[in-house]
Specification:
Elements lengths: L1 E8 L6 E5 L8 E6 L2 E8 L4 H12 L9 E2 L7 E9 L4 E7 L7 E6 L3 E8 L4 E9 L3 H4 L10 E4 L5 E6 L3 E6 L25 E3 L8 E8 L6 E7 L6 E4 L4 E4 L15 E8 L5 E10 L3 E6 L7 E5 L2 E6 L2 E7 L2 H6 L5 E2 L11 E4 L4 E5 L4 E9 L6 E10 L5 E5 L3 E5 L5 E10 L3 E2 H5 L3 H13 L6 E4 L4 E15 L7 E5 L17 E6 L6 E5 L6 E7 L10 E5 L11 E5 L4 E5 L6 E2 L11 E7 L4 E6 L2 E5 L4 E5 L5 E6 L3 E6 L4 E6 L6 E4 L9 E9 L12 H13 L2 H6 L26 E8 L4 E6 L3 E6 L8 E2 L6 H7 L12 E7 L9 E6 L4 E8 L4 H4 L4 E5 L12 H19 L25 E7 L2 E6 L4 E7 L2 E7 L5 E7 L7 E6 L3 E6 L12 E5 L3 E8 L4 E11 ...
Parallel strand pairs: 1-94, 24-25
Antiparallel strand pairs: 1-93, 2-3, 3-4, 4-6, 5-32, 7-8, 8-9, 9-10, 11-12, 12-13, 13-14, 15-16, 16-19, 17-18, 19-20, 21-22, 22-23, 23-24, 26-27, 27-28, 28-29, 30-31, 31-32, 32-35, 33-35, 34-35, 36-37, 37-38, 38-68, 39-67, 40-41, 41-42, 42-43, 44-45, 45-46, 46-47, 48-49, 49-50, 50-51, 52-53, ...
Amino acid sequence: MFGVCHQYLSSSVIEIALEGYFCSYESKEICVARNDVLEIYRLITSTNSSKRESSKSKLRHHNVTTHNKVRVNHNEAARLELVYSQRLHGNIESLAKASNPGNLDSIILAFGDYKVSVIHFEMSTYSFGTKSMHWFEDDEIKDGLVSRHSRPIVKVDSLSRCAAVLCYNRCLAILPLTRLDEMNNSSPTISNLRSFIVYPSYEVNGALHKINNIRDIEFLEAYFHPTLAILYEEEGNFNYSINFFWKSMIITIETWAGRLAVKEDTYSVIAIAVQSEDAKSLAFRVNNLPFDCLRLQAVPQPRGGVLVYTANALLYLNQNITPYGISLNSLAERSTRFPLEPLPSVVATLEESVSLFLNADVFLISLKSGDILLAVMTSDSGKSVPRFEMRRTISSVIPSCICSVGHNHIFLGSRVGDSLLISYESVVHELVALGAQNNKTDSEEKGQFCEAEEQEDELLVFETDDQDLFHRISYNFKVCDSIINIGPVVGLDVGEPEFLSEEFADPEKLALELVTCSGYGKNGCLCVLQEGVRPIVLMSHNYSAGTSLWAERLWAIYDPQKSSAQHDFLFLSKPDSTMLISTAESDFSEAEKTFFVTQESTIHVCNMLNGAVVVQVFKTGLLIYDGETCNTVRVGGGGIARSCNSETFLALALDNAHLLLFEINENTKMLNPLPSEEHSSPAVTSMALFTDNGNLGRAKDGELGVKRACFHQKEENDSDDEFLYGTADEELPDSKEFEGKNQQGDEPTPVKTYLFLVRLNGDLEIRLLPEGSLCFLVRGMAHGPRVLVGTGASDHEEASCFRRWKIDPNPPVITELLVVSFECLHGDIVLLAITHSGDLFVYRSYSFTETATEFDCLPLRFRRIEHEVTLRKMDNYEDEFASLKRHKEKEYAICELNGKPSAAESTVPIATAAVKLENTMTVFNNLGPYSGVVVTGPVSYWIMFSSSGLHFHPLYVEKGMKCITFFRNAGCPNGFIYFTGENAMRLAQLPSNVQFNARWPLRKVILRTTPHFLAYHPPSKTFVVAVSSEQPNKYKARAVNDTTEPLELAQEDARFVYPLEHRFEVLLLTPATWEIIDRFALEEFEHISALKVVSLNSEEVIEGKKSFIAVSTIVSQGEDVTCKGKVHLFDIVEVVPEPGRPHTTRKLKLVYSKEQRGPVTSLSAVSGHLLSAIGQKIFAWAFVNGELIGKAFIDSDIYIHRLESVKEFVLSADIRSGISLLRYQESQKTMSLVSRDYDLADACAVSFVVDDFTLAFMVADLDGNIYVLCFAPEDLASLGGTRLTKRADFRIGSCVNTFLRVASQSLPGETFSRVRHFNIFGTSSGEIGFFLPLDEKQFRRLAMLQSKMTTQLQHVAGLNPRAYRMVQPNFGSRVTQPSKNILDAGLLYRFISLPITERRVLAAQIGSTEASILQDLQEIKRSVAVF
């Protein structure tokens, strides 16, 4: 069994986020970790940062003198822009930054196998380079541990002097970021900038202070030496030793809530000053902290110290200060002897909470419920012990991490919901003297307090200073932007879209959409996903092959005589004529009288001068129409092959390789020719015009290098000691300098127009018009290098940054070029190029000024964006390349003779006869909220540009899409018209309820509850979802007899936190509107364990089988009450819709419900019978006359939680005993064990693998591994068929929760029908991927390519793809030898984005061709393209 595994969608949950300058000095950025994906987002704001800093300083230092409310109005429009994304070959467990004045911040990554890498961003290549790697898997460090039960933790000193790594909860390693003699010095000055260096790491002996079980670490501030606070659990009275062959290991016995009467207050905090490798000193130590301590957080200067977060309390510790703590509920006072002060204003728990300091005194705490607490640390007059005041503010997303972004934004990352960018503003109320406050009556105080409490999203924090004055400060919060998250995926199913245009309805192929259960609690939702674009067709007309009405190109044009924003003309170009259609009215009609040329084929039509002029370019000339007059210009020397335009310039490429340039006169509306002889040699294959507003010539990062050092130093000194002791002697530059150029208030930047040219030799030129001077030159652009480096780069830099290739005698030909820029790109430009063979190059510009000044070229470079799109045809790769090779040498030599073509050679085309020039890229802007490019062809792609990156969405239509144009009129404000390969013209628009700014088009159905299971009911075309909501449980179970009830009401105080109980219900949704049309609530304490659509034998239907909704439940009321379960069967019946709700035509009808003898843990159906796992047995039932009649049973293992069936075979998954293959024989009414697996310790999800006549079994474990097992009695390892043999394995990297088996697509040209299914899986980190079986020949070729790419490509952070995809079983598993018969498609698809020369070298090394490899990759993609 061979196969390939690939992630449709990479991880979407955000685990870690931190702020810094990682890729640019221009603005603040955040670095987020999504399991194995590292992303950098840039904060885009519109307000001057100096004003924000000034406002924040006034609030912090209490320089408020007004008696009115002061609202600090921060920037209202803020968003996050993705600037870098990289998939790593390892799961990111911890993340930290190391700041360095004058340089970009470095990132320290810790991975799950205790490997640490330090990476730094290189502007020359726009990628991260590895500075150092550290390995902590030595046996001495492990100290006998054989399982990875803890995650590594990385923390960095506030001055970036060193970093600490916690491994195995017991070992501390120090990474010096400066020399040991520099660690004792203060931060370096601006005038003495140093380079960032990572020195060899060393270990800190934890036994020196008897530290064994470390929970968290944190560097403290306001210390001369780097001081590390360690939260650890003390060694108890019940220590024992486990003797190994060479040493013994001391194990600390932890306590829990059930042992508090015996052991409590087990945690301690110790602060160690790290002076050098051999010198460490003790700063302070506090013992007997509560047993439920969670984490540490350093308190900023000048207060200093550390906060200790426990489950029910908050503690403050500092040197020479009495420890202080507050209890947030009554549970804290019962579980510890640590003195705690009750806080009656808040009742909460701090488990799974995250926190962030806004300044030295005010900090936010985001609870696991999503509520945000705003807290302040105050000190009474004459006392140094702080006090806490808290109040709830707003309710947000359930958090996983939090960090500040700039000065007035925070970022909330989430695992179960969309991550949010939130802005906050401070409101300072009038100052009130303490004496005046004491004179107020109690009623006045109560009234003011109630009035303030009614103000939603605000908080009043009371604070007194030494002058007996206090402030009232409130904060307003506003959501500015969000990052889409579809994880965790706990359920998958496919369904048919309710509204689908008839043009996309194929009777032989169902149109499917993928629906997932995602989120948790109030962030619960259903995600409806589709791979491609499915537009809403408003009008369609098919033309036969003999009909003359068809188009090769389309253009929608504005009428110069009208000022409306609607298109008035539609040009349809034919091979020998042009049709003009009027679109001003609601109906399209052919224009009777027109000034335009209709007797020739139209090459290009455009509006110029903001729609004041229409220019029509045809084969022999061009026509200019300004609404009143019409002028025609004939072009000699050969026909026009291609044209492009800007607002004021027009470029024409002739068949004889000559280039013509025109500039339009704004007064006379005439085109004036420009000198263009120098642009004609070598021959031009493609060109594009781009109007620049100052972005190409801007210099951001190069000029802000030293300035950022000053700004960084200012941020470090921006604390309360600046208010107390004044600023430094060194004067810092004005903060306005950090805003860059061309900000609001500066002089407007002149508009420039650039001409982009690609020549036959593959060189890219950028020329400034109208002068035609060369501004930028790239050698070998047609090969698709990773970075386009201009003329200014030296040979040494090119050799060090890029792999130099030899001169190719047959370079690829760029047949089409397009340069665009949209508002969402923040001034960057995107260059798109298509080669003759169908390769699509996408480049994005970035500023690079190191060589621009010296060599007088544009201060920018272009980085290539990786994607998995290829426009090649699957049937003629080799023929097309061979034809090009035969014709190229002769025709190129003629084109380049004497620098320009002669009169006798005027018939030579600008490209070879084997290359067909086509205009396949069309730009659209403001199509609703979207902008981008459409690439037409056999498989069309919509390239959506957004702040979250570039997204490629295919559009599958019959025989491809020939041409497309975008237009607006009264009937269709945001529409487009396209022609299919079958000569069908369609008027369509994008659906408004689908988000296209994601990897896949997405629609979220908000549930506000936790979805657990999902099933699609085909007969009624509805979805059934099992959801739960959390409610406080105020009952407790007790022993049951004949006279007592199993539950009694608990009597607790008002500050008691009750446990949350899940209340389950079954929902029925219609995909027409995705509204809930019916629901069925379950009883209290009844939990749903499985929900499926089962096909059971029934006499009610002619087919003999009927689909029912089967639900299994477990009723658990505690340890003292016997656990029971129920089986519910529902039928979906048709009813009369409710008034005003036309879609409520279906209802749930309960046809069976009965309590079972034990918990019902799973359900399925086999041969028309119902399967149920009850306790330790699996039963087969027949549903007859509304009752379940037992037919067969078999004993099972510990806990069966998954049952899957195919025909008469059943696959059962046990949570601790692997999988078993069962067979149900209906004729004999028996169920028998066929084979089972004895190696896997746990099984999270199971599924069947179907590959023609081969049936295999796929299982996923808790560690993110998947295995493919087979029943092979002839194999000796199977012991006669009693043991399932392992054929393949692969590591996903995240726990797989569910599988879904779908039939694959048949490929064009297949001589026989191959029955092959692929398995879709969803993970806890939001990944959606697939496993596809492959034949051995295809697998061997791609396996050799994967091996070469593993060793020859550079991988970020020094990670090994082979090691990452190798299974890592749990300690209890008996899996030993990996099979490795599954390919990593994520690595293989990088082959498409490699430079062409590297692709050819890799293909030659494995004895294959580039075309064969690309065809294999495209076949894999087309096989799974069912959505």
